[in-house]
Amino acid sequence: MPRAGLTTDRVVAAAAQLADEAGFEKVTVSALARRFGVKDASLYTHVRNLQDLRVRLALLAGGELIDAIEAAVAGRAGKEALAAFAGAYRAYALRHPGRYAATQIRVDQALLAESPALRRTAEITHGMLRAYGLAEPDLADAVRLLRSTFHGFCLLEAGGGFGAPRDVEASWDRAVDALHVALEHWPAGH
């Protein structure tokens, strides 16, 4: 029998809050049970195990991230859309570090195929890149370039890894400019 007041959504929302406060690696069933003032077993009515909890958190965070990106890129194309996409990505990663870390875990492909948020992520990302005239397999390569650039920059920035006196915002803007140039002049397929 589920404990009154506890729902799967509340458990996952609490996991998201804990991830941002303490770090994704600190999200455990025991830590959440302590937050709710219940025994671990009370949460297993709502999540199967730690992996299920973390996957649910990853899907929640992925949905939040694409919602922010979608709002930012609406009505934009080309460099303006790329800059809006990049800015929303970075803002989410820095504002929600634990949730963002959750978006980096490997999730079963069957679950991804069922996720409306993940389908929207592909649609929005591919739509933005098609404005650069890209089609498969170049589209997949461009997505990987953007993701690795944004992810690496955000991780370094969040961890204080940019020690040079150069303004980080200026470096970010230049990185987005460089990506725009690379996308406009994408090398012929291999």
Q: What is Rg?
A: 19 Å
Q: Rough shape? A: globular
Helix content: over 70%
Largest sheet: none
Order of helices and strands: HHHHHHHHHH
The CA-CA distance between the termini, in Å, is 57 Å
- Residue share in β-strands: under 5%
Strand runs, count: 0
Overall pLDDT: 93
What does this structure look like?
The protein is an all-alpha fold and 190 residues long. The protein has 10 helices and no strands. The longest helix has 24 residues, at 50-73. The model has no long low-confidence stretch (mean pLDDT 93). It has helices at 8-22, 29-36, 40-43, 50-73, 78-95, 97-102, 109-114, 116-130, 138-158, 168-184.
Secondary structure topology:
Elements: H1 8-22, H2 29-36, H3 40-43, H4 50-73, H5 78-95, H6 97-102, H7 109-114, H8 116-130, H9 138-158, H10 168-184
Helix pairs in contact: 1-4, 4-5, 4-8, 5-9, 5-10, 9-10
Summarize the structure.
The protein is mainly α.
Can you tag this structure with a few keywords?
190 residues, 71% helix, mainly alpha, 10 helices, single chain
